[in-house]
TrEMBL record:
The keyword Isomerase does not apply. This is LacI family DNA-binding transcriptional regulator. Residues 1-55 form the HTH lacI-type domain. One of its GO terms (molecular function) is transcription cis-regulatory region binding. It comes from Buttiauxella izardii. InterPro entries: HTH_LacI, Lambda_DNA-bd_dom_sf, Peripla_BP/Lac1_sug-bd_dom, Peripla_BP_I. Keywords: DNA-binding, Transcription, Transcription regulation. The keyword Amino-acid biosynthesis does not apply.
Amino acid sequence: MSLKAIAKQLGLSVTTVSRALNGYDDVSQETKARVEAEAQRRGYRPNTFARRLKMGKIDAVGLVFPIHPVPLNNSVFMDMVGEISRELAQYEVDLLLIADDDNADQHGFMRMVQGRRVDALIVAHTLDNDPRLQQLQSAGFPFLALGRSQLSQPYAWFDFDNFAGTFSATNHLISLGHERIALLGENNYQAFITQRRSGYLEALSKHQLSTDYLRAVPPTRRAGYKAVQELMALPSPPTAIITDCNSHGDGAAMALQHMGLLTGEKRVSLVVYDGLPVDSIVETDVAAVIQSTREGVGKQISSMVLGLISGQPVESLQVLWQPEFTPGVTVNPPA
């Protein structure tokens, strides 16, 4: 089905029909609606490749993620990726996953930039001083950072207040009378990890409590399980535990459950960032720091990256969301 047939049916020129389907501003909304309705009725789909060449757009966005640690093992990250992809697909924009090796001489995503294979990049798991973002900013290429970093010029970013999440959770435990509070934190220097660690440490410092129960562990169930076993074997074990990701949070919950400490008279309070994974075998309603829904995050990020592609100022594309604390049944005064 050609543009000519649509133009003839509506009494419009082929040029007007083409510009209406491609979203040009010089075509009225009424005319666009008529053209789109007729195109849909006829099952017309434009030649995507030709349209991309004409408009200088690729209709693809790359999502850059680090190889180490492996975020594809994280259900929260993968749920978010799925929602971003679904939202962008509604605008006929494809999402490409680009693995990036920090130890490589050259970042693989720069091939996408230099070959103009994507319209913009989403950069996940940022660092406080992130060479990827610095390189993209120097190249003048549009990007949306998932996390804040230190850059010389303004840039688009979306983030959660990770500091506030652990700070509020730790303060809540302290208000219940806990003094020996452990944090199982990921053993890397990505920005969201350091921010969560800082929130925990700041709350302890404010009340002059010991930081001896801080542990840096890999983001795995096994590491969380073993860390809790070791903590509970101490002469003065913690009375409360916070984990900064749900993978080792699940391991921590399993360890406490196996030791009879997740519930009951000798229970140890537990707070898991992002909540337990959906496939967890632990059925107890564990306390959590929740970062909105994956659907909400996907819509927000997709909207921002589409705005970036359309030329919105980066200063208007800077969004910080606040996490929420849900107490569940695993936050109680010390046993």
